[in-house]
Amino acid sequence: IQVYCFSCDLSKTLFEEIRASLNNNDEEDRSFWRPVLPWGGVFTIKAGRKALSCTPLYVKINLKNTCTIDGFLMILYVILRENQGFPRELAVFLGKQFVEYFLYLMDSCDYTTVKMLWIWDRMSRRQYRSEVRKTALEIDLFGNEHDNFTENLESLMSTMQESLCTNWSCPARFQEFIKTTINIRHLPHRDPIKSAVDLHFCPKLLLCSELGCDGLREFSQRVFCHGPPPFVILNMQQWKSEELSYVPYHLALCQHRYLLEGATLFNKEEHHYSAAFQIDGCWMHYDGLRSDNLILLHKPPELLLLSSLIYIRASDK
Ligand SMILES: [Zn+2]
Questions:
Q1: Could you report the per-residue pLDDT of 34-82, keeping only the tens digit for each?
Q2: Superkingdom of the source (predicted)?
Q3: Residues 198, 149 within the same domain
Q4: Residue 112 lies in a domain
């Protein structure tokens, strides 16, 4: 049986379609012509012959509160399609099969399956709530997008910093600290994001915190464990966005140049995440709950209520 997909044009990737719609956009219509990655989702389990032999517990999976992964899945897709070579690099961390299937599902507009892929392949069981209701399994992703997405990128952003205590009798003179995420704390400074990032990576001298030690601890420059990653996510949750003067478009991380690609935003009142990202310099806003969920913005977004900033590695050219 030949199956036709009327909702998507398989000769073009979803990314190419979005890019084409940016170029053909007129003033009246600033939304992409069809919904992309809508909030929630219903996944129907295809019962095979084996299913007849036992009573299935459920035949459907209902997804709830998926905004904690939706914005990032959208940005991840754009990053991978926009940068040749990034899928191969990400495959080292997440597996070749995962990356290929992810891109295939997004290009096929199979949005519920792409979320199921993330949930089953990347998330651990303790990261979401699930319960059986009548004939459906409900998976609720209510929570924090850093727990649900950023934490599940394996060692992609792992950085390491060594430290040595000046006190010879220190119980743990030499130490190695590995961090798998990059948290940005607010600093009272003129150029706060750059300073906070520099502080995260730079060598420093602190009082040793080992019990009974009064030495000084020298921290080396922090380095990426597996080389500079194709993209980095800065966790901005602890940032006071009302004090944010501007978001830098370029960042130097470990001697590599990174460019701002997008951001995820968090609305506290609604406990809802959305995302903004750019393609060819045009900024778009994505919100899975809206009916027109991908819209073109007239100007770069304000980037208030930040949850994350996403930077991609600039090519060496
Ligand atoms: Zn010490």
A1: 789 999 999 988 766 555 555 566 789 999 999 999 999 999 999 999 9
A2: Eukaryota
A3: no
A4: yes
Whether residue 90 is found in the same domain as residue 204? no
70 and 20 together in one domain? yes
* One domain for residues 23 and 146: yes
Distance of CA 208 from the midpoint of ligand 1 (Å): 5
**Shared-domain flag, residues 26 and 90:** yes
Contact 38, 110 (CB under 8 A): no
**291: containing domain:** 14-158+226-313
In the reported structure, the alpha carbon of residue 199 is separated from the centroid of ligand 1 by a whole-number distance in angstroms of 21
Cα(160) to ligand 1 centroid in Å equals 19
In the numeric block, which tokens belong to residue 183? 């948290």
Q: Which amino acid is at 195?
A: S
Query: Model's pTM, two decimal places?
Result: 0.89
C-alpha 198 to ligand 1 mean position (Å) = 24
Total domains in the chain come to 2
- Cβ-proximal residues to 118 (8 Å cutoff; 6+ apart), any chain: 69, 73, 102, 149, 152
Asked if 145 contacts 71 with a C-beta cutoff of 8 angstroms, the reply is yes
C-alpha of residue 217 to centroid of ligand 1, in Å: 6
Q: Please give the distance, rounded to the nearest whole angstrom, from the Cα atom of residue 176 to the centre of ligand 1.
A: 13
Q: How confident is the model at residue 244 (pLDDT cuts 50, 70, 90)?
A: low
Residue 205 shares a structural domain with residue 102: no
